[in-house]
Design a protein that fits this description.
Layout: H1 12-24, H2 32-44, H3 48-60, H4 63-79
């Protein structure tokens, strides 16, 4: 999992790139839940393309996977 320094808040583009990595399996194993989480975090920061890709990904996931991804995004926000 990616690590960000406390002083530098990650940009929406950084979150978006992580979503792309996990959705395509670029340098990490493909993981739709992780991809959704990072797209969700990018979307919260206003990244428009992340909103679109999060929706596309959610359409391919079951309700439990989406729920897990949303919970992971909330936990990430709480802890960072």
């Amino acid at each position: 999992m990616a690590h960000f320094e406390a002083e530098a808040a990650p940009s929406s583009d950084a979150f978006f790139e992580l979503g792309l990595m996990y959705s395509t399996g670029r340098t990490v194993p493909t993981d739709r839940v992780e991809a959704h989480k990072w797209f969700n975090l990018a979307a919260v920061k206003g990244h428009r393309e992340a909103v679109r890709l999060r929706k596309e990904l959610a359409d391919e996931m079951n309700e439990m996977e989406v729920s897990i991804a949303q919970r992971a995004a909330r936990e990430w926000l709480r802890s960072h």
